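User: Sequence recovery, please. Input:
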């Protein structure tokens, strides 16, 4: 086994070395990819725009296709994967990703740069191993073969589409092989950059005009008013004048539908119970035309600080913040009763794997049940804060039954004073095409070209 000593004490100008640094960082200290990118940002700040694009493609692409890449490595390696050091394995993944998925990079360049990465880590023998494996993969591509789809449908789909077997098995059980293939393909696509027009500061046509020269294209999202996709922006979004001026927020169309399902009215009191960084808080304020009151709660003070910054940027004047841990019962005496409550609950995140490909490999089957238990607890603790005839929306970026209808059944069983809202009473007609026969909002990447979300709207009847 060879060990690569990554040089992370100085800025990197090689996009491949930067990608290796991030992948190695994820192996050493498992955390969300966003956190790893934030932590290593000072070391990648010197990358040119072109190199930044390659860096991002290598990080996200290698993570997206990791299982498929590992299967190729296993077909050509002279040792088991577990005998290959994590850093050398990441170098092989980066090299193979370029060979298999990036047509614009010559195969020889992919091999040579991978060998140089190994050498830069002071592992000469490892460089020879990397060189031999990649060149063998180029010379004898037929040595790698997918498992037979008929005899081993789960293994075939898992390796072909690069998803964990336990998740493929669940999806095949629900959607069949063809539906699973379509979902996996959508999850493996690079997701769009979706924006939400901030109606407090401009109209959609005004925003489109402001962004016209900031990207190669700006396209409205069908069926979601105020949402648009930004195609290949020409500069980082935080540097755009329209962003600095608070004229838009970055938010997937599915997440925007959740706020539309709650449909708060001007003058109402609203609770955003797991507000995070404020994406839905600020959308709710926008829908309320900055009239009424919103309380944004979260257990992480650092998130509330960033939420307050977002509130100021977007010109929201009706949102306050409060620290609260929904793992513990809330004291009803210290809260008002709210007209509408939103619980965008912590979840497995399996509906947003196209944006967080690292979660494919950090998520486990047991996580789904664990999150479902936590979601039920959060709903129990929020129920007393909903006024009579008030509304509660429960939402997750997951398509898994335990976190969807399972959570709904548990909540209704424990709280007979709540019912599912009649779809005909939902004021915002935009959400109606996304409602199923039971009145639940569902979005799927392979059907709606947006993130996978589930939401249920409850009404308190007594």
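Assistant: Recovered sequence (462 residues):
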């Amino acid at each position: 086994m060879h060990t690569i000593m990554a040089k992370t004490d100085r800025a990197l100008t090689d996009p491949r070395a930067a990608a290796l640094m991030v992948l190695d960082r994820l192996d050493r200290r498992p955390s969300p990819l966003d956190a790893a990118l934030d932590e290593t940002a000072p070391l990648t700040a010197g990358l040119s725009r072109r190199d930044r694009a390659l860096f991002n493609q290598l990080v996200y692409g290698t993570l997206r296709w990791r299982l498929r890449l590992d299967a190729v490595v296993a077909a050509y390696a002279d040792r088991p994967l577990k005998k290959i050091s994590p850093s050398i394995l990441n170098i092989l993944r980066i090299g193979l990703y370029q060979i298999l998925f990036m047509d614009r990079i010559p195969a020889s360049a992919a091999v040579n740069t991978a060998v140089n990465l190994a050498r830069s880590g002071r592992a000469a023998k490892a460089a020879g191993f990397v060189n031999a494996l990649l060149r063998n993969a180029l010379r004898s591509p037929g040595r790698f073969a997918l498992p037979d789809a008929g005899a081993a449908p789960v293994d075939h789909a898992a390796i072909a589409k690069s998803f964990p077997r336990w998740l493929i098995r669940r999806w095949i059980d629900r959607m069949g092989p063809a539906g699973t293939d379509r979902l996996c393909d959508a999850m493996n696509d690079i997701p769009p950059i979706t924006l939400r027009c901030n109606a407090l500061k401009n109209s959609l046509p005004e925003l489109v005009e402001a962004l016209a020269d900031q990207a190669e294209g700006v396209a409205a999202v069908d069926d979601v008013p105020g949402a648009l996709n930004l195609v290949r922006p020409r500069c980082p979004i935080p540097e755009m004048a329209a962003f600095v001026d608070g004229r838009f927020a970055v938010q997937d169309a599915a997440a925007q539908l959740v706020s539309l399902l709650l449909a708060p009215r001007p003058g109402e009191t609203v609770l955003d119970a797991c507000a995070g960084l404020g994406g839905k808080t600020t959308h709710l304020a926008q829908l309320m035309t900055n009239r009424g009151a919103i309380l944004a709660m979260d257990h992480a003070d650092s998130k509330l600080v960033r939420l307050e910054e977002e509130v100021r940027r977007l010109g929201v004047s009706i949102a306050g913040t409060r620290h609260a841990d929904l793992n513990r019962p809330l004291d009803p005496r210290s809260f008002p009763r709210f007209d509408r409550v939103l619980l965008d609950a912590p979840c497995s995140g399996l509906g947003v794997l196209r944006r967080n490909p690292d979660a494919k490999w950090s998520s486990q089957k047991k996580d789904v049940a664990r999150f479902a238990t936590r979601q039920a607890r959060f709903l129990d603790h929020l129920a007393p804060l909903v006024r009579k005839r008030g509304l509660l929306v429960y939402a997750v970026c997951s398509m898994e039954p335990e976190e969807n209808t399972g959570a709904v059944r548990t909540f209704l069983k424990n709280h007979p004073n709540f019912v599912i809202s009649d779809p005909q009473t939902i004021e915002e007609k935009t959400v109606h095409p996304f409602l199923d026969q039971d009145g639940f909002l569902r979005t799927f990447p392979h059907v709606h070209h947006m993130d996978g979300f589930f939401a249920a709207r409850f009404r308190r009847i007594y």
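The radius of gyration is 24 Å.
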